[in-house]
Structure formats: C-alpha cells, structure tokens
User: Fold DNA polymerase III subunit epsilon from Sphingomonas ginsenosidimutans.
Amino acid sequence: MYPRRTQSQIIRVIDLETTGSPPPVHGVCEVGWQDVALGADGRWELQGEGGNILVNPGRPMPPITQAVHHIRDEDVADAPWWQDVARQVLDPWPRRIALAAHRAAFEEQFCTPALTHGAEWICTWKCALRLWPDSPSFSNQVLRYWRKPAGLEHERGLPAHRAFPDAYVTAHHLRDQLNEASVAQLIEWSKAPGLLPRVRYGPDRGKEWREIEEESLVKFMTDRDPDIRFTAETEMARRRGGGHVGRISPQELLL
Assistant:
C-alpha cells in the first residue's frame, strides 16, 4: 500500500500595487508574492524566490498613486489583465493552506474568493498588534527596522511600495509570527478587528488602554473605527473579568 501524500504546509504572502481603492473604480497594476513553508524541523522559513507580475489595470494611473509606487501607464500598457494572472498567483498547485498580507483587508478587495478558491487570510498587521505591542508603529517598514528580522536581505526588500519587495518583507514578519503562534491562532486574530495596544487620538493618545479612565473608554466604545471600538469593548470586558488587551502569554498562543 502506498503511503498517503501529505499536503505541504505553505502560506503565500501577497502584495498588490493598484491605481487606488476600492474596486471596481480602481484596478491592480502589480502583484507580488513570497511563500513561507513549514520545515522538517517544525520551524517556518521563506521558501522559493517569489516573484511579481505587472498588470494592466484597464484605466489611467492617477499621479497620486504613481508617486507611491512609480508604476507608469506605459509600464503596464502591454501587461496582462488581472483576471488572466490572478488565479495562477493566488491559487497555485500545490495549494497553499492560506494567503497572507500586511493589512490584508486591502488585498482581499481585489483578491476575491472566486480568485483565491475561498482561501483563508492572515493579516500580519493585526497579528503584529497582538504579538509585538511594544513596536512604535505597525507598518510593514517600521516593523522591518524595529524588529530587524533574521535573514532579511536589505536590497531585496527595496524599493518599498513595489509588490515583490513588500511581499518579501511581509514574509519575514509572517515567518516570525508563525514561529510564535499557530496558523489557526493567526487566522482567528485576522478575522477580528485589530486589537490596538495604545490609544490613537485625543487626550489619552499614546496611553495603554488599561491606563485610561472608564468614562473615556465608554466613549471609545461608540467610535466609528471598528478597531478602536473593538479594542475598547475588549478592554471593558477585561475590567469586567474577561479578556485582556496587551501582550499575549505563550500559553494563550496555543490552540
């Protein structure tokens, strides 16, 4: 009897450059990717070279977004359409167990379930809020220079705001997160709003949530921002005897 083939444990990091947000008003002009795989030693590491593909967005490139990624209309005039390249990048064989991106909600607007085969997503931004709450900021690049991930080749992660270099940097954050918490835990955190370590604005700006008065906390519970509202509700639940805001203990990382 032949041994059963086990599925490779691979997660694909995706990064998109676009003409703006959201679709269908705006379109993809570049997609980049980098895989992260579970090794035989039980540790996650980057796998393969990754890559990028320029995409014709089907509309002119606004100057404001050109100033971010420096992709011009003439650079993508002869490039393939998004629907012609998306599936090969987002749903390759062997199938990845999940997709990941930094602030994945942006990529998910363009990478629809029909294109991803209904893949689960990991948001490395939301997971960084949980795992590394002491970071001065949680952007892809601030985390890069604050944490200094092992093995990250500086030039390979440049220029910023291009699809492959950004995916490459994000993959190092994902690798380190996977080596601290389970895949299931990262997916669970990614499905919830962001749990913010510190207050973003107002008289209590910069304070940890446990430091603010309850009167202020109640006001944040009606904020229009879902991340602020969720964090305030979680802090209130902690004060009432359940849940917490801040650093996660090793025991809590295991599902």
Q: What stands out?
A: The longest helix spans residues 163-178. The mean pLDDT is 93.
